[in-house]
Amino acid sequence: MIPDVSNPCWKRVLMSETELAGGILATKILLTRLRREVKAKPQDLPGKIAELQAYFQKNSFAAKDIALF
């Protein structure tokens, strides 16, 4: 199950600098971009959380990466 955008795990993963070990390449690339964008504009965090959650909703192949958060 994909957590709701209000779940603190999304903020934790986007604010962290820890590498996503074991994740698929597409998730790693997206996460790197989103983290860079949030670091540049912290006020955009809610939109980036929504974008990350939408990625998991759209791409079921990446669902196992949620467990890494």
UniProtKB/TrEMBL annotation:
Highest taxon listed in the record's lineage: Bacteria
Protein name (database record)? Uncharacterized protein
What is the scientific name of the source organism?
Salipiger marinus
